[in-house]
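INFO batch 0412 | record 1 of 1 | parsing
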Amino acid sequence: MYEYNTSRKCDLHVPSCNTSLFKMSATDMGIRMYNKVSTTIKQLESFKDFKQRLKLFLLDYPFYSLSELFIQGVS
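INFO prediction complete | emitting tokens
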């Protein structure tokens, strides 16, 4: 997370990598997927609320592939 009050403040830092193996790893994909989630969901205080809202988000926006999620994105 970033220290400055920017629009992407809640995003996690994606480490730079040079290998395609790391770009397809669970760590890299998880960070990139988390960064695509709406800021209102990321700012929820309780983990239970986060899980519930994330589930509703995924039901409202059914992505059939990761590339569709990363290309289309959601605000």
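INFO post-check: The mean pLDDT is 77.
INFO record closed
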